[in-house]
Amino acid sequence: MKYPAFLRLSPLLRENLNVSLTAVKTNKLRSILTIMMIAVGIMALVGILTAIDAIKGSVTDSFNRMGASTITIRSQSLRGQSSEMRRRIRNQPTITYQQAMAFIESYPIPSRIAVYASARSMLEVAYGSEKTNPDISVLGVNPDYFPVNALELYSGRNFSHYEMNSSGFVTVIGSGLLTLFGDKEPVGEFLNLDGRRYQVIGVLRSKGASFGGGADKQMFIPLGNARSVYGGDNMNFQIKIQPLEGQNSRNAYEEAEIRFRTVRRLSPSDETDFRVDRSEDMLERSMETMRIVTIVAFIIGFITLLGAAVGLMNIMLVSVNERTREIGTRKAMGATSRIIKQQFLFEAIVIGQLGGVGGILLGILAGNLTSLGMKTPFVVPWPWMFMGVAVCLVVSILSGYLPAVRASRLDPIEALRYE
Q1: Which helix H or strand E contains 115, and what residues bound it?
Q2: Is residue 280 part of a domain?
Q3: Helix extents (H) in 202-323
Q4: Backbone phi and psi for residue 240, each to the nearest 5 degrees, phi listed first
């Protein structure tokens, strides 16, 4: 029975592979050092890209947690502004409660609109003899704040309109404050805050420790109470708009700027003295920055890998010089130049792939240790893993080709005479 040509060559290929594996095992120290060189290059490449992927996922998740398709209106910073703009901002530095309410009344796009302001930060909150660390923030909010920011109640309820208008001493707390209560149900209990007692009416589900997850260590009180207790008209309010489903976010954004300019009594020739940001634009800017970082990281990893490739080529050339007699013996026994070339290419590929596997594992570990330190989720970078294997294969072939060609061109008589 006549077999196809590629099946008839398979025993030779197997023999060459065995010879290559034996050579790798025989020169253990050299092989280990070479494998480590490749592994370090791949680790740098995969590790950096894994960490970046983890950060990307965290940033995207955080924007989703903060509320999808939202528009935020906040006061403008003086930094980088013209003298005329600085004068206007100094005259009207904050967004007042009256301006926020006037905007809600005039805004025509069907939306949920959250109004909120920071009341205090870095506070201790007490329940009986139990106290938190001084890292609790207090925000004055309206009832729409929670759905707009994708905050869900774990138990209890939201603020009522009566509590908002009567400045009631009630609070919705983040899950980070549950440690105060032990096994007791917190809803209905009273917390001591700045010498005042607030009744807990609701508890939020945990948002985690990632970027945007600060709600876990926050207390939320009605806007009216925040104004009467923590600053009145001196507070700087922010407005967050979430257009209802089916509304065009770009139109909503443009309408928000127009309406708030009217509320601020700006003439058509005046520059806008407040900021309007879309969450999609912020996310896109963040992703663009991450794309640039990814390109830079890839270049750094590639340069590291290029150094490893040069090292592999040098070691393979040294190996050819040291094994000249072996090459001459194999040629004298009938091995062709093609078989000798295959032997050294296989050897380079085996070393490269072993280094690649080690580098991928170390890269995943290093990348996820970095993401763990930044409290971002664990990532298995399948695309980068496959890319690492492919890159190692290419590097191995390129690094091993010149030494393989040099070995295949040795004259068997001269090789046998080599000392």
Answers
A1: strand 111-123
A2: no
A3: 223-230, 249-263, 279-322
A4: -125, 125
For 91-111, the pLDDT digits (tens) are 567 899 999 999 999 999 999
Tokens representing residue 354 in the block = 């072993």
CA distance 27 to 254: 70
Select from 240, 272, 304 the last residue of a domain.
Answer: 272
Read off the DSSP letter of residue 176: G
Q: Contact at 8 Å (CB) between 130 and 100?
A: no
- If pLDDT is split at 50, 70 and 90, which confidence band does 396 have? confident
DSSP H helical ranges for 27-124: 28-65, 83-91, 97-106
**Which residue has tokens 């270049």?**
299
Cα–Cα distance between 302 and 48 in angstroms, integer? 11
Please indicate, yes or no, whether residues 319 and 396 belong to a single structural domain of this protein. yes
Cα–Cα distances (Å) from 285 to 74, 282, 289, 409, in that order, read 18, 5, 6, 56
CA gap 35, 308 in Å, rounded: 9
Query: pLDDT tens digit string along 300-350?
Result: 777 777 777 777 777 777 777 777 777 777 777 777 788 888 888 888 888
Tokens of 133: 């660390």
Answer with the one of 221, 242, 272 that is the final residue of a domain.
272
Is the pLDDT assigned to residue 284 strictly greater than 80?
no
Mean pLDDT of 35-58: 76
The one-character DSSP state at 177 is G
How many other CB atoms are there within 10 angstroms of residue 404's CB atom? Answer: 23
Instruction: Give the model confidence (pLDDT) of 118-162 as tens digits.
Output: 998 888 999 988 999 888 999 999 999 999 988 889 899 999 888
What are the pLDDT digits (tens) for 224-237?
A: 899 988 876 678 99
Give me 357's structure tokens.
């596997």
Query: Is residue 100 classed exposed, middle or buried when 0-12, 13-18 and 19+ CB atoms within 10 A define those classes?
Result: buried
Q: Which helix (H) or strand (E) holds 214?
A: none
* Residue 81 forms part of a structural domain: yes
Cβ pair 204, 145 in contact under 8 A: no
**What are the tokens at 415?**
């090789």
Distance between start and end Cα atoms, the chain: 46
- Asked if 195 and 303 sit in the same domain, the reply is no
CB 97 within 8 A of CB 309: no
